[in-house]
């Protein structure tokens, strides 16, 4: 019995020791866990403080750099403005000096010229009014000389059936279009001057009497315009076959046709003839008769004035008489449009 009790007591004591040891182990583990938790918290606080310090330091450095750059920029800007102001002032002073010198030089030159003219007048013993009168007389002499020259040339080159006034107008038109350098008559300008003045009769007389010089000038001008139109019609990425399809794809044929059309337009719709022949005034007057032969009537119709309009789709010719219709049939260029009794017709 005593042994059993001893055994039980020993077992109870062992259990008590085990529980005590376990309690100590649990307490030690809790203390270590708490200690690690505190250490982790300290480290987090220390890291946070370090981060805050670094951020404040970087912000301070950035602000200092920004302020320093701003101060440097302000200083550079002010320095540049002062230098620019110095240069502007220097340039202005130089310009003012130059202008003053120029004005002074011009004034001196003007005074010298005026003094020279005064000396000339005093030397010649004439006044300014007398000088003007003398210049006017000299100008009048020159005009009389020109008129006498024109009359002399008119008498030397009289077309027979022109009145003296018409002959003078024709010769004055020639004289006013003489090139001062080459001393040659600009026949095209002379022809257009007479046409612009409404003297188509004198323009045709000029064509008939100058041996083809007027016709050649008109044709050269027309060919230049036709060549320019051909250049404008030609495309960068197309061929002549498409650009000039209305003329069989032939560029030269287009230029030839267009030249002929422009000549006809310049000369009032058909005075151009194959081989350069021109109807004489006597033939033109004879063709006005209803009893004239057909060839003469054709020449008369070609000398007739074109009807009102330009012959385009936007501004077609407008027929107001049978003569306008006959002119359109014989002299209008290909593709021209005319309105007859309110209806359009294309040649």
Automatic annotation (TrEMBL):
Protein's name in the database: Uncharacterized protein
Top-level taxonomic group: Bacteria
Biased composition (Low complexity): 281-302
Record region (Disordered): 61-140, 226-321
Biased composition (Basic and acidic residues): 66-84, 109-124
Composition-biased stretches (Polar residues): 95-108
Species per Swiss-Prot/TrEMBL record: Azospirillum palustre
């Amino acid at each position: 019995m005593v042994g059993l009790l001893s055994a039980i007591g020993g077992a109870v004591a062992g259990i008590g020791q085990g529980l005590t040891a376990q309690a100590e182990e649990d307490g030690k583990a809790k203390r270590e866990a708490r200690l690690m938790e505190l250490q982790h918290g300290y480290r987090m606080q220390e890291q946070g403080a370090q981060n805050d310090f670094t951020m404040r330091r970087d912000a301070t450095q950035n602000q200092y750099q920004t302020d320093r750059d701003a101060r440097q920029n302000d200083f550079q800007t002010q320095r540049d403005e002062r230098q620019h102001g110095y240069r502007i002032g220097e340039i202005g002073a130089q310009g003012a000096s130059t202008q003053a010198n120029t004005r002074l030089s011009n004034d001196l030159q003007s005074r010298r010229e005026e003094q020279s003219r005064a000396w000339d007048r005093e030397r010649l013993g004439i006044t300014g009014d007398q000088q003007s009168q003398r210049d006017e007389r000299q100008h009048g002499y020159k005009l009389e000389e020109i008129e006498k020259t024109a009359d002399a040339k008119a008498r030397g080159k009289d077309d027979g059936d022109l009145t003296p006034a018409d002959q003078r107008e024709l010769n004055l038109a020639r004289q006013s279009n003489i090139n001062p350098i080459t001393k040659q008559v600009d026949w095209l300008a002379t022809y257009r001057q007479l046409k612009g003045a409404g003297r188509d009769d004198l323009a045709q007389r000029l064509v008939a009497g100058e041996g083809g010089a007027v016709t050649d000038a008109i044709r050269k001008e027309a060919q230049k315009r036709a060549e320019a139109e051909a250049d404008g019609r030609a495309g960068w990425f197309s061929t002549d076959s498409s650009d000039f399809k209305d003329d069989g794809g032939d560029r030269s044929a287009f230029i030839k046709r267009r030249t002929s059309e422009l000549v006809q337009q310049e000369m009032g719709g058909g005075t151009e003839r194959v081989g350069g022949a021109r109807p004489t005034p006597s033939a033109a007057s004879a063709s006005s008769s209803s009893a004239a032969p057909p060839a003469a009537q054709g020449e008369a119709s070609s000398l007739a004035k074109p009807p009102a309009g330009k012959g385009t789709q936007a501004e077609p010719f407008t027929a107001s008489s049978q003569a306008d219709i006959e002119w359109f049939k014989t002299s209008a260029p290909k593709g021209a449009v005319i309105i007859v009794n309110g209806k359009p017709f294309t040649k």
